[in-house]
Specification:
It contains 14 helices and 7 strands.
């Protein structure tokens, strides 16, 4: 069966000016094409994407960037759909970007997110997009960070970045948003069960979801336990103290309260604090791009390819320590003519 989904290969030569203008006018098809372009790994498409982003950047930056993560089964999709519906009812345009590290392996589908958030997907004031199968979490982060710029330039007021909540995805998402919301569940009275080490240090708002029916009392007890743990983490500091709330996304109970705390966190940051946070994120993102590109260049290098098998065999045979092997690979890369090491794809 044929597909109507646009891919960069369908348009070898991109009219960047026309695409930028269409994105700024808020055309959904143009937004989709622009995000597909920034996801592409082809060098010519990435060059076009850089040009496009340069045109869109002056018109971006106005949205609330909110990351939403949580343990599997916590109800992130229900929460986002309920929150998104509230925001669009208030006249906001909402973009949802789903960062799923598993898509690196499974090549996740946009249709999966539209199925999980069917009502929001049908809302003309909302736009839902899954992460690309970019080969690495860093590649997904690159595309998602640039997709935020596209959505903001298209006039979206709120960008919600969802992550599946595995591996390093929470840290990755926290590094591209203004406020990071973590959803959890009350699990047999243990409020800390399922929350990975380090989450309490990067989270801005915590919410115990599914606080309804006979689980409401347990959820509130879990929230009290979490609040106590957070007091220990933030004791003696003047930094933002993450509030711990309860809600029921399924029944739309206290979801508005969670959003008010997100707004309060934004007020806490202030104009200067928000600017400083985003500037620091951009600097970190710069170095992430450099690391990703260097990794790709090593893989593409003919000089490295020439010594790879020999070095690998020596390491496997125990004849060469890892440090010496790394030196040999880097020496091979450094020996390549400078013209083969130009910065093509940043």
């Amino acid at each position: 069966m044929g597909s109507s989904v646009w891919t960069p290969a369908d348009e070898p030569s991109v009219d960047v000016d026309a695409l930028a203008g269409a994105v700024r006018s808020g055309r959904r098809s143009a937004v989709s094409r622009a995000i597909t372009l920034v996801e592409s790994s082809r060098s010519d498409h990435r060059a076009a994407a850089r040009e496009l982003l340069a045109r869109l950047a002056p018109h971006a930056g106005g949205a609330w960037r909110v990351g939403i993560s949580g343990v599997p089964g916590v109800g992130k999709s229900t929460f986002i759909e309920t929150l998104g519906g509230r925001l669009t009812s208030d006249g906001k345009r909402v973009g949802v970007l789903a960062v799923d590290p598993s898509s690196v392996r499974t090549r996740g589908s946009v249709l999966g997110d539209k199925t999980r958030m069917a009502t929001l997907a049908a809302d003309p004031a909302a736009y839902i997009r899954s992460s690309p199968s970019a080969g690495t979490l860093g590649g997904v982060a690159r595309a998602t960070t640039q997709a935020i710029i596209v959505l903001e330039a298209a006039g979206y007021d709120v960008v919600l970045v969802e992550t599946i909540g595995v591996g390093q995805s929470e840290v990755t998402v926290a590094a591209m948003v203004d406020t990071f919301v973590f959803l959890t569940l009350a699990r047999t009275g243990d409020a800390l069960q399922g929350i990975k080490k380090g989450i309490l240090e990067i989270v801005d708002v915590i919410c115990v979801n599914k606080a309804d029916g006979d689980r409401e009392t347990e959820a509130k007890a879990a929230a009290r336990d979490l609040a106590g743990a957070l007091r220990l983490v933030h004791a003696g500091t003047s930094s933002w103290a993450p509030p711990v709330l309860t809600c029921s996304a399924l029944y739309d109970v206290d979801v508005d309260t969670v959003w008010r705390r997100v707004a309060r966190h934004r007020e806490f940051l202030g104009v200067r604090g928000l600017q400083d946070k985003r500037s620091a994120q951009q600097l970190d993102f710069t170095w992430a791009l450099v690391r990703e590109e260097l990794d790709q260049r090593l893989k593409r290098s003919d000089a490295v390819r020439a010594v790879r098998e020999e070095v690998s065999a020596a390491v496997l045979a125990g004849q060469m320590p890892a440090a010496n092997a790394a030196d040999a690979i880097l020496a091979a890369y450094d020996s390549a003519p400078p013209q083969h090491r130009e910065l093509h794809d940043l």
